[in-house]
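Give me structure tokens for this 196-residue protein.
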Amino acid sequence: MLKVLTALTLAAALSGCASLQVMDAEVNSYGNWPAQRAPAAYVFERLPSQQSRPEQQDALEAAAGPALEAAGFKPAAAGETATYGVQLGWRVAQQLPARDPYWGRGGVFAGMGTHGRGGVGFGLGMNLSPPVYTREVVLLLRDRASGQTLYETRAASSGYMDGFDGLLPAMFEAALKDFPNGGVNPRNVRIDLPAR
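Here you go.
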């Protein structure tokens, strides 16, 4: 019985992942992007902690690149002076589901029934709910000449995938969806996901 339940749960989880077509993100954007300024060449700037994990930061920057280009920015070519510096951040937190009071306990039960009949029962403690992940990305745009932060945007979402590989591009797309306008904070942004 346990094997059948496990197989059914795994099949449901996989079919849910396959049918995921959109992602909803809560976006907050801040800053007063000057009306006369246009997007231009940028470089990524890394904090010392990010420099210690170059492979992870490379993946993060690759995920943000398409959203920056869609907003009109382009990576600075070799030898070109970049107008803007871009700093990125991300976090993911796992939330374990609450235990079901009926399915979450195991043990042997004995006692008298409502009609005077005795009995023994066995309960199996299982929690078949998958963990939920809360994901967030942050993007800062700075003027490299003055060091002034011109735009800050954050996107947060939650779901059954940790999202580092598959959802990061969509998270950055949501974060920059309304650039250069800030919009209402927070606001819901829906992003279509590529078919998997």
